[in-house]
Amino acid sequence: MQWLEQMKQSLTIQLEENKKLHKSLLTKLNSLWTRMELSEADQKQFLEQYTGYSDGVIVKFKEEVQRLEELKLANLEKFIKLTRDEISRYWDLMCYSEDDRKLFVPFYSDNIGENLLADHEEKLERLILEYNTYENLYKTIKQRNHMWEEFESMECKESDPNRFDNRGGKLLKEEKTRKRITRDLPKLEEMIVKEIDLWESNTGKIFTVYGHKFSDYLNYQKEELQNRKDQMKENKLRAKEEAMHNEMVYGSTPAKTPKRRIAGTTILTPANKRTKTAHTPTTPTRGGHPEPDSSYTVAWYPSLLYVPLVGRRTFLGQPPRENL
Hints:
Strand order of the largest sheet: 1-2
Number of helices: 11
Low-confidence stretches: 272-280, 294-307, 309-316
Strand content: under 5%
Largest sheet: 2 strands, antiparallel
Helix content: 55-70%
Shape: elongated
């Protein structure tokens, strides 16, 4: 009887240990199933197939955990990459500078492992929470930056002579856009300043846009635009001076004017003239004077048909009257 009592106590202890182990393994399985996106139907099928706390059930739970762990490790690099892509997207939305991004050291680690994935998932959760809390601030900054890019583009085209090609009412559209930006841009910047004050009050930190305080960021953009305009003017002036220098040294190239010809005449090019002169056949006439072949085109000018009365007979191949 004592042996049976000891066996009962041993089995009871084993059952309690199996229950604890079962709970621990089930927790791991639930986490892995969620991470691996296993369907609820498959999860339910597994749990219905292996019920209770027997040693056999515990073995099956351990095998399933091992299988999922191996599958996770095989896809761990893929999961980390996907998580990093999401983190980068939120960094862009929240105007993070390169220095700000480098503060999250695990992002640049090559030590692939479950801990690295956990660090990335935790970072992503914090970014999502912050963005959703101050979504209006980040969206307004994005809207303001897009409007500034429009203004910057118009300012750089101001000295372009092609802008006066007013096809499709381009100048009118540009003027309307300029008025809209001049009206709305200061309003957006004022809204952003108020939102930043609230953010800094809640977080106790200094809000930065690409590593700069917002006021410094605005001044930096204006200075950069002015420098670009000055550089464009300097390049234009330098090109003009270079053109004037070349004209003084080499002279200007005269404009070519087309040659005029009399209507109804055929103008032969030098090459054609040489060809026709060298190979033009002639036919003798009764007066002994050669006559050009009829296939050859001759340009007749009215002014050459006038012959003085005195020498007209000679010109026409007839003897003078005094010789008749």
